[in-house]
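> forwarded from #structure-qc
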């Protein structure tokens, strides 16, 4: 059961969080609403690795990775300035110092884009908001980086584990990541699928072409679920 104090909230994942009760993603963090598949996966890695968190939000998985003694560093990409601020504060609150917070989005080219955000649901922020939010959207001009920018931002490690949660831009991000130098040392990619936005078959096809051979589906929803791609 999650417990609270005046200065922080202890989530069901054991991560301390700056209180942000008006946000749906925060609430899911607190109650363990994302399940334990990926948190358990990160906790049980036994070989040295670095974690690349694309769409890091308030930092749950970045912090969980950083806690693993085999984690050599985390590159967390979060373009929303307000959300990135919370992530930085959460990292400090949990006393992890090996997280690099990059306030950029991954895109096919370097430059700037308009990010649409929805007050009350940080997890819906997107460069391509094709769904209605439940609150009045706001916009923010953010910086984008491509494959070279990714390689320049990540720590050196023998193995990389990647998480991608970018609200419908998964195909764009994965295609760009597959152009990096890091992909050759990437053992696992955990990514979100919303079939209203992206084709699961297309994502699997482009990853298979880059050497990923096993795909484990996580979640029972027929439309909205996660996939762990494994290079074996």
């Amino acid at each position: 059961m999650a417990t609270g104090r005046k200065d922080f909230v202890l989530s069901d994942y054991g991560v301390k969080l700056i209180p942000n009760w008006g946000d749906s993603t925060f609430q899911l963090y607190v109650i363990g609403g994302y399940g334990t598949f990926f948190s358990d996966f990160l906790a049980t890695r036994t070989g040295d690795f670095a974690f690349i968190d694309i769409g890091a939000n308030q930092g749950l998985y970045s912090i969980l990775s950083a806690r693993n003694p085999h984690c050599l560093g985390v590159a967390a990409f979060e373009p929303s300035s307000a959300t990135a601020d919370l992530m930085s504060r959460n990292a400090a609150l949990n006393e992890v110092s090996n997280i690099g917070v990059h306030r950029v989005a991954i895109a096919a080219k370097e430059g700037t884009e308009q990010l649409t955000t929805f007050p009350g649901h940080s997890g819906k922020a997107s460069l391509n908001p094709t769904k209605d939010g439940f609150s009045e959207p706001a916009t923010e001009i953010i910086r984008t980086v491509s494959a070279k920018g990714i390689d320049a931002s990540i720590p050196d490690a023998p193995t990389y584990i990647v998480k991608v949660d970018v609200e419908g831009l998964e195909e764009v991000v994965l295609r760009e990541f597959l152009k990096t130098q890091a992909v050759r040392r990437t053992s696992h990619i955990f990514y979100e699928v919303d079939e209203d936005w992206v084709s699961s078959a297309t994502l699997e096809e482009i990853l298979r072409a880059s050497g990923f051979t096993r795909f484990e589906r996580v979640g029972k929803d027929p439309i909205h679920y996660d996939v762990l791609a494994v290079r074996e």
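QC bot note: The helical segments are 24-31, 37-43, 60-67, 81-93, 147-153, 170-177, 200-208. Residues 81-93 form the longest helix (13 residues).
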